Amino acid sequence: MIDKELLDILACPICKSEIHLRDDRLICQKCRKYYPIRDGIPVMLIDEAKDLK
Amino acid sequence: MKSKNHNVLRVYRTKAQAKESYDKISRFYDYFAGAFEKKYRNMALERCNIKRGEIVLEIGFGTGHCLKQMAQSVGENGKAYGIDISSGMLEVSKQRLEEAGLLDRVELQCEDALKMPYKDNKFDAVFMSFALELFDTPEIPKVLAEIKRVLKPNGRLAVVSMSKEDEDSILLRLYEWTHKRFPQYVDCRPIYVKQSMKDAGFGIAHREKVKLFGLPGEIVICVKSS
Lengths: 53, 226
Description:
- The structure holds 2 protein chains of 2 kinds.
- By secondary structure, chain A is mainly β.
- Chain A has a single domain (about 5-50), classed as N-terminal domain of TfIIb (Single Sheet), CATH 2.20.25.10.
- Chain A is built from 1 helix and 5 strands.
- Chain A has one helix at about 5-10, and strands at about 20, 25-30, 35-40, 40, 50.
- By secondary structure, chain B is an alpha/beta fold.
- Chain B is built from 7 helices and 7 strands.
- Chain B is globular.
- At the A-B interface, helix 1 and strand 4 of A face strand 3 of B.
């Protein structure tokens, strides 16, 4: 699980704005993209970002 | 002084190659590079003076020796973050931190330092041990700008790196030749450490020259002015 402290410091690597946790994904509303969480570790690589539907 | 950078060698391997080779050597890294780096990374950590309760970040944590010390220094109320491009290194570090019982105050991630997923003004200190010289020449100012962005005002950056400052040594030239000839094995190369940090707009708080088995090195502590 991602703790609150980590969520508070994390930002979208593309636009650096706030990200939100939803259904085990980290979402950037501004870029309309999401980042996966694997083994409890957020994978915030631009190559791994997927488009929100 | 900026023009001096044309003397700095380029990095002749891609990031994907770097990730692959560091993944491969992660289990053995300490046996050959570890001993070479230990003394100076400890010196740099000491100069960085990490205090209890601080939020700190290491870029390129490798096998996690420094991150362990950083996690001890910040104490229970602080937090040590670490990013590395190699997932193999992440596994090795995770194990080390788990054995030390420090995992609860550490966050490890596989990231590219050029595009850090952190908000502005979040860290009290950023630490880089033999990592800045792994970035290609045009990337170095970008990495430093990114570090400046995530540091709090008055936050400090500590770097220990191979240095090109004392240019004329046969050993250094031999090293640079090896870097050009065997980029996949010798991927770091000497850079202008203090000057790069100055160019990025940091204030220099401390700088010392060291010798790394005869090769010139620099330890520089700089500050993001508020």
